[in-house]
């Protein structure tokens, strides 16, 4: 299993909206960055992803699961980009803020810190475990 982080502005797509989709999940569409596209292509069914509220809140609020691997993004007229389907798995008991992540020296190399604008990122096993601990799960 691999670990990832997906970003969304809560005013566009929030954790609560993801949860409301239930077990059928929702397509993670609209990614238009080639590095993020590569990350989507590398996601496998059953992988886990942190759900990060960007710009508004700047915090990891939950854990999602990849339920369908990469396929053509129906919102992309150029047919160059892909999407995956994700479903909410569980919320973090305590959201983990960007400030808390930056304050943790063991997370200094986390993609979220180094590449703050990248919307789909890989997370190492060590980073995953530490953020889960910080979030109370």
Query: Could you give the order of the helices and strands?
Result: EHEHEEEHHEH
Strand content: 35-45%
Q: How many β-strand runs?
A: 6
Radius of gyration: 14 Å
Shape: globular
Biggest sheet: strand arrangement = 2-5-4-3-1-6
Which quaternary structure do these chains form?
A: single chain
Low-confidence segments: none
Structural class assignment: alpha+beta
Report helical residue fraction: 25-40%
Q: What integer is the average pLDDT?
A: 96
Major β-sheet profile: 6 strands, mixed
Query: N- to C-terminal separation?
Result: 18 Å
The count of helical stretches stands at 5
In summary, what is this structure?
The chain has five helices and six strands, in the order E-H-E-H-E-E-E-H-H-E-H. By secondary structure, it is an alpha+beta fold. The model has no long low-confidence stretch (mean pLDDT 96).
